């Protein structure tokens, strides 16, 4: 069953200081089935992250449609849907993992993960239990849980990002280089968690530079160069 269909997705940026237009991605087309994992590979600057940010509506598309089968709204075009509906989907249905950590000030690591469940309406006790399990799974030392993540290393921050996104078990999960600063042991944990989510019908699109990691996880892989699939 198809959960996402992208038709002619293009994104241009205009650099006002240079009076120049940059074409980031052009005429991207693919579909994603429920429980399927699509990987996107390519050099830095090829336009891979732009695709994920358009799906997540961090960027507004220049052209094209992003058709998503939502539990709450039915088929919806993420490129043109009202902001209210996009905010709902980010909270309840679509997860996004970046290499970079974005945490509210004075929020501890434990609170950051619990917050993902509390905003979905979960109880304090359930959120605390599930957050503990996920923090343990990603081997974040317990002495860090009640500290502010600004003090964490790059790998610790990335594992915290993964914990927050995956604790929600979203229907659609977008992963922007989720293993960029992880050691081999942490990569194995991520791989097993992705396989577990797939088995429970989470659909995923991921960007990876580690081609070995993609083997055995991705169902299909697209190579990208200069804004287009090749």
From TrEMBL:
It comes from the Bacteria. Keywords: Amino-acid transport, ATP-binding, Cell membrane, Membrane, Nucleotide-binding, Translocase, Transport. It comes from Papillibacter cinnamivorans DSM 12816. Residues 4-230 form the ABC transporter domain. PANTHER family: AMINO ACID IMPORT ATP-BINDING PROTEIN, METHIONINE IMPORT ATP-BINDING PROTEIN METN. Pfam families: ABC_tran. This is Alpha-D-ribose 1-methylphosphonate 5-triphosphate synthase subunit PhnL. The lineage of its organism: Bacteria, Bacillati, Bacillota, Clostridia, Eubacteriales. The keyword Secreted does not apply. InterPro entries: AAA+_ATPase (IPR003593), ABC_transporter-like_ATP-bd (IPR003439), MetN_ABC_transporter-like (IPR050086), P-loop_NTPase (IPR027417). One of its GO terms (molecular function) is ATP hydrolysis activity. One of its GO terms (biological process) is amino acid transport.
